[in-house]
Write a structure and sequence with these properties.
The protein has 2 domains: 44 residues, no CATH class; 278 residues, no CATH class. It starts with a strand and ends with a helix. With 330 residues, it is α/β, with parallel strands linked by helices. It is 25% helix and 26% strand. Helix 3 runs antiparallel to helix 4 and helix 7 runs parallel beside helix 8. The relative contact order is 0.16. The chain is built from 9 helices and 15 strands. The longest helix has 17 residues.
C-alpha cells in the first residue's frame, strides 16, 4: 500500500521521522521517501529480524507452518468458538463475525472478559464521515456489522493491536468490560464509565475526527463500564445474563518484552517463569469454570502477541489453555 502526505507533516531528520511514523502506524511499518511537495509512504508488515525484540520468534513460527515474520500480522486459525492468532487485532474480526450471526441490538449488554496487559483502547486509523466510518489507508467503508469491511481494515493496518476494542465498544456502548491485568500495570481494582470521544488525525487526514473512547471515573460495573483489576474475584463479580465474549492476550500471563527494544532496562516487568504462567492459566480458567462462565462464552479470541509474550512459551501455554477450555475449542 502506498500513500502520500504533505512535506510539513513529517520531520526531515530521519530518526525523528521514523519515530513519528512508528507512533502513528504502530503495528505496520511505513517507509518514507521524498517526492515533490511531500512524502511517499510505503506500508508493509515488518519482516526485518531487527524489528522484533524476541529473537526466539523464528523458532516458534515452526508451529505456524514456518511462516515469515511479515506474515505474523495476518496469521490466524479457528478451533470451535476460538480464533487463535499472533496479533490480537483479529479479536475484533471474530467478534464482528459473531455479531453478524447473533444480531445483537446496539443497546444490548455484552460482557467482555478481557485478559490483557493493555487496555487496547487507542484510536484506530478510521475517519468519521457523518455517521459512517472510513478506513483512512484504503478509503473503504468500515462497519462493525460488516465483517468483510472489518477484515479489510485489519489487513490494511487501519485497526491494530492496540485499537481493536475501540470500534466494538462504540458499536455496543452498553458492553460491560472486565479487564484482568497483573502488576505492575494494574494493582487492585479501578472502575470507569466509557463514552464515545474523538481524536483529531495529524497525518493521513489532518484535523479529521477519528473514533476514540474516553474513560471517566465511576463506581462499580455494568452497562457502559470498564473495570481493570488484578483480583480474580473482582474480575468476575456481578456478571449479568447475556452473551460473553472472551479475549485472551497471552501477555496477561507474561509481558517480558512489552514491545520495547530496551526491555532489559525496565526496573519492574511481568516476567514469571513458565511454570508460574501455566499455574496462572489453570487458576484463571478454574475461576471461570467455577462461576459457570466458560459455557456462556459465545466467541473467544486468543493472541500470542510476538514481542510481548515470550515465544518459547507459546506452545506449552497454548496446550494448557486448550486443556482448560476444551469445550470452547470443540
Amino acid at each position: 500500500m502506498t500513500l502520500r502526505v504533505a512535506s510539513h507533516l513529517l520531520p526531515d531528520e530521519p530518526h525523528a521521522r521514523h519515530g513519528r511514523l512508528r507512533t502513528y502506524f504502530c503495528d505496520i511499518d511505513a517507509q518514507a521517501s521524498p517526492i515533490e511537495g511531500g512524502w511517499q509512504l510505503d506500508l508493509a508488515w515488518p519482516s526485518d529480524p531487527e524489528r522484533h525484540v524476541d529473537f526466539r520468534i523464528r523458532d516458534a513460527l515452526s508451529a505456524w507452518g514456518g511462516i515469515g515474520l511479515d506474515a505474523m500480522a495476518t496469521a490466524r486459525r479457528r478451533s470451535g468458538r476460538v480464533l487463535t492468532s499472533l496479533y490480537d487485532t483479529w479479536s475484533l474480526l471474530t467478534w464482528c463475525e459473531w455479531a453478524a450471526r447473533a444480531k445483537p441490538c446496539p443497546t444490548d449488554r455484552i460482557t467482555i472478559l478481557h485478559l490483557d496487559d493493555h487496555r487496547d483502547l487507542m484510536s484506530p486509523r478510521l475517519a468519521i464521515e457523518g455517521d459512517k466510518l472510513v478506513d483512512m489507508i484504503t478509503d473503504e467503508p468500515f462497519d462493525v456489522m460488516d465483517p468483510a469491511s472489518v477484515l479489510s481494515a485489519c489487513n490494511s493496518g487501519a485497526v491494530g493491536m492496540g485499537s481493536f476494542l475501540t470500534p466494538f465498544l462504540l458499536a455496543f456502548p452498553n458492553s460491560d468490560v472486565r479487564q484482568l491485568c497483573q502488576p505492575p500495570k494494574v494493582e487492585g481494582t479501578q472502575d470507569w464509565a466509557f463514552r464515545a470521544a474523538v481524536e483529531r488525525d495529524d497525518l493521513l487526514r489532518p484535523g479529521v475526527a477519528r473514533p476514540a473512547i474516553a474513560l471517566e471515573t465511576a463506581k462499580g460495573t455494568g452497562r457502559g463500564h470498564y473495570r481493570a483489576t488484578s483480583d480474580l474475584d473482582a474480575w468476575l463479580s456481578d456478571i449479568d445474563d447475556g452473551p460473553i465474549l472472551l479475549h485472551v492476550d497471552m501477555d496477561y500471563f507474561n509481558n517480558r518484552y512489552d514491545g520495547d527494544g530496551d526491555w532489559t532496562d525496565r526496573m519492574r516487568a511481568l516476567d514469571p517463569p513458565l511454570e508460574t504462567v501455566l499455574r496462572r492459566i489453570d487458576e484463571v480458567c478454574a475461576v471461570m469454570r467455577d462461576n459457570g462462565l466458560v459455557e456462556r462464552v459465545e466467541d473467544a479470541a486468543v493472541a500470542f502477541s510476538p514481542g510481548f509474550f515470550p515465544a518459547e512459551m507459546w506452545q506449552p501455554a497454548d496446550a494448557r489453555l486448550r486443556e482448560n477450555l476444551a469445550g470452547l475449542y470443540e
